[in-house]
Amino acid sequence: MISNDLQDIERRAKEELERDQSAAELENLRVRFLGKKGELTAILKQMSTLPPEERPVVGQLANRIRANIEQAISARGAEILAISAAKKLYDEKLDVTLPGHHHDLGNLHPINSVLHEVEEIFLGMGFSIAEGPEVEYDYYNFEALNLPPDHPARDTQDTFYISDKVLLRTQTSAIQIRVMENHKPPIRVIASGRVYRSDAVDATHSPIFNQVEALVVDKGITMGDLIGTLELMMKRLYGEDAKIRLRPHHFPFTEPSAEVDIQCFNCGGKGCSMCKGEGYVELLGAGMVHPKVLETCGIDSTVYSGFAFGLGLERIAMRKYGINDMRLLYENDLRFLEQF
Ligand code: PHE
After folding, report:
1. CA angle, corner 269, sides to 264 and 270, nearest 5?
2. Atom of ligand 1 nearest to the CA of 284
3. Which of 170, 171, 199, 247 maximizes ligand 1 atoms within 8 Å of its Cβ, making it the mutation to test the pocket?
4. How far is CA 126 from the centre of its chain?
5. Residue 5 CA to chain centroid, in angstroms?
6. Are strands 254-263 and 280-289 parallel, antiparallel or unpaired?
7. Residue 234: which of 260, 259, 209 has the closest Cα?
8. Which of 85, 101, 207, 303 is 20 to 30 A from 254, alpha carbon to alpha carbon?
9. For residues 173, 178, 183 and 185, what is the CA-based torsion angle, rounded to 10 degrees?
10. What are the residues whose beta carbons fall under 8 Å from the beta carbon of 95, sequence distance 6 or more?
11. What burial letters (b/e) apply to 238-272, b meaning 16+ CB within 10 Å?
12. How does pLDDT run across 46-93, given as a tens digit for each residue?
């Protein structure tokens, strides 16, 4: 009986709708029962076999059942939608009252912050910044700086040689030569970087340390310019009370040469344990660029003169921050570094 088959379809459709379904499964179900090739259509195709008087009755029944199933499917569809919307809301919930993730901000290493300070001071005076390689030719590190192969002063910088002609630079002065080779005066540069000397590690020595070099070459540059520049730098680094003094010294690449001391902050120059009774503490080496060095770089020493100085950044940082052991600067212990 067709009407029995129709009712059977309705019953089965409702039964299946009771079960859990996804939106896709629900659509499959609709196609299976109501689609063009679905069960209901298949039955309606048999209508022609019915006696004519029965057809309107069965037709009405079929329409009602179709409407029922359709309505049940769309009700179930709405339910599925509501459930998935609620689940989405739940999954994506955001508790704006939760404490945030805290990221620790890093800070500059004391050596870098001193370097930046020095760079600021010199950039302010119109200097530019130069660079050079850490693995350097003997020529730039020594020979062109008026230290020929057998020069005794080479011994004072215990050098790591890589080959006869190549070494780890012992001083940033090597960069001076590279600058003068490539630039005509006026020259005003500072250059910084790591330098290497075969020293045993202790509170004031390390085989790797950092230097900053300054070089000025122009017409009429005198020792007065050197002293004025040094005084300005020291006052900016250590405050207006900073006092320096120059002691005669010898570097092969400068003539005259000087070592520059700063008055001891601890005793104000009277002499104490910190300055070993001297009243002053040694800070850097300086001098007027040796005419031979200028000539080696193709600069006419009868027209141009210049000054240069080189200082150890570790020493500056230790003075500035009251650090008494150089090793602290290399150990990267956060408890130490976070103080700066
Ligand atoms: N290069 C010297 C050193 O390392 C320092 C220096 C630089 C001296 C420039 C004079 C001029 O000891």
Report:
1. 125
2. 5
3. 171
4. 27
5. 76
6. antiparallel
7. 260
8. 207
9. 20
10. none
11. beeeebbebeeeebbbbeebbbbbbbbbeeeeeee
12. 888 888 888 888 888 888 988 888 998 898 888 889 988 999 999 988
C-alpha dihedral sign at 226, 227, 232, 235: positive
pLDDT the model gives residue 114: 94
Provide the 10 A C-beta neighbour count for residue 152.
8
Cβ-contact 121, 311 below 8 angstroms:
no
CA atoms within 13 A of residue 201's CA, in its CB half-sphere: 9
Tell which atom from ligand 1 comes closest to the C-alpha of 310. 7
Q: Which residues have CB under 6 Å of ligand 1?
A: 171, 173, 213, 251, 254, 285-287, 308-310
Pocket test for ligand 1, best of 146, 155, 173, 316 (most atoms within 8 A of CB): 173
Integer Cα distance of 189 and 132 in angstroms: 12
* pLDDT tens column, 257-286: 999 999 988 788 898 887 888 899 888 999
First to last CA, the chain: 94
Q: What does the CA dihedral 17, 22, 25, 26 come to, rounded to 10 degrees?
A: 50
Fill in the DSSP letter of residue 159.
-
Mutate which of 213, 225, 249, 251 to test ligand 1's pocket (most atoms within 8 Å of Cβ)? 251
Q: Is 277 left (phi over 0), alpha (psi -120 to 50) or beta?
A: left
Residues 227 and 198: beta-carbon distance below 8 Å:
no
Q: DSSP letters along 47-94, please?
A: GGGS-TTTHHHHHHHHHHHHHHHHHHHHHHHHHHHHHHHHHHHHHT--
H helices of 143-209, in order, are 173-182
pLDDT value of residue 63: 87
